[in-house]
Amino acid sequence: MLGGIEAGGTKFVCAVGTGPHDLIVSAPISTTTPAETFAQVITFFKEHAPIEAIGIGSFGPIDLRPDSPTFGYITSTPKPGWGNTRFAGIIQDAVNVPIYFDTDVNVAALGEHRWGAAQGLNTFVYLTIGTGIGGGGMVDSKLLHGLIHPEIGHLILPRDKAMDPYEGHCPFHEDCLEGLACGPAIEARWHKKASELPPDHPAWSLEAHYLSVGLVDLIYTLSPERFVMGGGVMHQAHLFPMIRENVKRRMNGYQMATIPGGDFDRYIVPPSLGDRSGVLGALALAQRASD
Amino acid sequence: MLGGIEAGGTKFVCAVGTGPHDLIVSAPISTTTPAETFAQVITFFKEHAPIEAIGIGSFGPIDLRPDSPTFGYITSTPKPGWGNTRFAGIIQDAVNVPIYFDTDVNVAALGEHRWGAAQGLNTFVYLTIGTGIGGGGMVDSKLLHGLIHPEIGHLILPRDKAMDPYEGHCPFHEDCLEGLACGPAIEARWHKKASELPPDHPAWSLEAHYLSVGLVDLIYTLSPERFVMGGGVMHQAHLFPMIRENVKRRMNGYQMATIPGGDFDRYIVPPSLGDRSGVLGALALAQRASD
Fold it and tell me: Which pairs with CB-CB distance under 8 Å and at least 24 residues apart come from A16-25?
């Protein structure tokens, strides 16, 4: 059996299995202190021994350079208690199997590529819109890394303060995609949880507007074959048609022929694995690495 | 010998040779009608026969999908007379050697990777800032393509019309990087050629501002190891330190540790091949393909 860890800023979820039809998933483990959280993760895998390898998809930023002294660490996260935290090494020391480590969003992208909405694609983007905004994906069939890894949530957006005076939720930048469009930004702007705002609330056209600008920037940079959009905010299914229309209008005819068949319903889609993209992707990471 | 064509919207340059130290370069061929322009290109290669293969770096958008009926065409360019123009096939019919075809900017990136400022890098971006703005590069050692190819010039930028009331030069979008920061935009805004504006003219801080926003968006999307910035506008060498400072300030400490050694002088650089990146890259494309 293989193991997977989806390590989020709010909760960790662990699993053992080989894929969607053979999967034991842990109860959610609250992300408290690293020591407490890792202890529960390790207990779960010890209860399900033997395990051949573990894949981890972690919130970040994380260090993915194998030659770095802090390889496998969570690095400069603003999350209290988690800055510069050794992660992959702690799990390896305790469980003593090979550990494979990547970003939460790259791992979710891998899950969707293996079993979900991105099967057969070479270049695509996976986005999560929730307590933060993150993006990963593949370019030419390889997970996107670069020097470190993408931080798509920090794309700089145009804004009109007359239309939206909200100052933004990101501690690093004003006016970045995450700062303007993550779940907590919606909540702070409208003084209600996103899930409590009705589909015709102006919050949603504003949300679709910001997300669409981000998508168009990603189209012009990566030319993806598809966007898979997950995370808590995207549970509001009415956002999908709004985003599709907005992207279409915004590209204003430029290169529209390249969206296969002009079919935006298949170009911007929810994850087919629902909230399991991450934990299944973590299994796929362990499996791919052990091939 | 190998052949290369750098096909720009203003001029074409052809070359035969094997690299920077063994290179015969044609006189610039004005980009007039496709028939006239291609005739001069073909004459150059016939005069320098025999040639084993030709690499082409073309202005775009272009069709790079080998299974497409318009493979090797320039597609939806706004340039009069050049929309939906067969290109690679015309050259192949006349010269009868294998033809390799990619974007002008990917080909320039390849030239810099082979012989210039991007040697040894896996993930980097090449930008040209001239009559338009374009970008190419490599991700994980492969030229960036995706579904079609990047159109980095069309990144959507924030703007402050009180600071810069100029409406933009792009026929497709208001407020895109190319529309606000290409050479003709500088000229239209200040009523002088960019090359005639002194280094302390406010044009340059505005130009550095727009280019830096574009660079930061690319950092958050691709996490490149280096930016190579060429094209006519970047002949103004004083722009480089202004852009470096602006990018540094704009990232506001986020992930700064990942710019190797924090060394922005090596992170944002001019092409080492000067104005030869494109034509040498076209040779490299022919060479790589014929390996």
Answer: A16/A45, A16/A48, A16/A51, A17/A283, A18/A283, A18/A287, A19/A114, A19/A115, A19/A280, A19/A283, A20/A115, A20/A273, A20/A276, A20/A280, A23/A276, A23/A279, A23/A280, A23/A283, A24/A48, A25/A276, A25/A279
